[in-house]
Inverse folding.
């Protein structure tokens, strides 16, 4: 294995705890309570998300994996060998090897804010691809990341699978796309997964599965607040809600109070009326055109597009 030591980029435990507290206290003070979706992914949340990807109702992972495993020759022809693949978020254990096998890169740089998950997936990758230099970087990729010197002179391919871009509203998404461009530099390319608009019933089932795994994933956020921020949220009085917002083409997840409740977080008091919600996630869905428009607004020119056999999900290759 050639996995190098982690470079710590201003995301020490205290920094993360402070950012989490700030986001939660601010979000719970808004008229529509909200907590950013990035805080789902503590260890428990990351494992629950892995469980979600195996649910029968949750099609995005299967659809994207299908594209990656069947279109390897086209990726290689269009992208070429010898790039440094920079993955934004390193959670996926299945998709990354498919891409690396297809395009034979010169190096792999996983970026993730969660150090333990990053180390585990970087080690697994390094073991699977002996001879491939793996340089994990623990960093918040919402800000420009200084890439390791070892890949400074290699052309970059950014890889952002899973339609994670859909978790952001357009302003944040364009900011991130521009930040990625700054991180990757001139001549870079981006391979990005973007989930497609479809029957709302299919979408709502994907985010409210029969086994209740997505509900546990959503509720884990309240439990995490209790664990890490001295919270007293009565989690049993919250229920998981997933609904399609047609105006904004997105699935919204909320935690809805089933009765009037009051609780504390980090010494601050909050209350919720019966029926009131905490908005915990947006998952935007795209058309071919809205996907292209978002990429263009973020400084990327779409060059190629793939969908799975059922037309559920898209992967887009764009140039800086
Ligand atoms: C992390 C963006 C891939 O929005 O589909 C899955 C997160 N939330 N089920 C998504 C998620 C609820 C997921 N992504």
């Amino acid at each position: 294995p050639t996995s190098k030591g982690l470079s710590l980029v201003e995301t020490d435990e205290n920094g993360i705890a402070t950012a989490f507290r700030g986001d939660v206290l601010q979000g719970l003070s808004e008229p529509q309570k909200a907590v950013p979706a990035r805080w789902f992914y503590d260890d428990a949340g990351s494992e629950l998300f892995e469980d979600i990807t195996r649910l029968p109702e949750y099609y995005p992972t299967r659809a994207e994996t299908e594209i990656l495993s069947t279109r390897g020759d086209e990726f290689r022809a269009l992208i070429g060998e010898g790039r440094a693949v920079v993955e934004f978020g390193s959670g996926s254990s299945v998709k990354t090897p498919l891409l690396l096998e297809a395009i034979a890169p010169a190096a792999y740089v996983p970026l993730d804010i969660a150090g333990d998950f990053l180390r585990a997936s970087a080690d697994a990758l390094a073991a699977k691809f002996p001879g491939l230099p793996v340089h994990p970087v623990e960093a918040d990729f919402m800000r420009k990341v200084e890439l390791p010197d070892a890949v400074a002179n290699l052309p970059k391919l950014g890889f952002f699978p899973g339609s994670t871009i859909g978790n952001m509203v357009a302003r944040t998404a364009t900011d991130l796309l521009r930040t990625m461009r700054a991180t990757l530099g001139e001549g870079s390319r981006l391979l990005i997964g973007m989930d497609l608009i479809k029957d709302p019933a299919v979408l709502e089932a994907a985010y409210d599965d029969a086994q209740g795994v997505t509900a546990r994933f959503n509720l884990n956020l309240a439990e995490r607040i209790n664990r890490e921020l001295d919270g007293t949220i009565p989690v049993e009085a919250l229920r998981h809600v997933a609904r399609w917002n047609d105006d904004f083409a997105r699935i919204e997840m909320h935690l809805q109070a089933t009765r009037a409740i009051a609780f504390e977080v980090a010494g601050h008091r909050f209350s919720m009326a019966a029926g009131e919600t905490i908005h915990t996630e947006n998952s935007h869905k795209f058309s071919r055109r809205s996907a292209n428009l978002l990429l263009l607004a973020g400084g990327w020119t779409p060059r190629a597009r793939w969908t799975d056999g059922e037309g559920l999900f898209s992967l887009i290759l764009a140039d800086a």
Remarks:
- The longest helix spans residues 13-29.
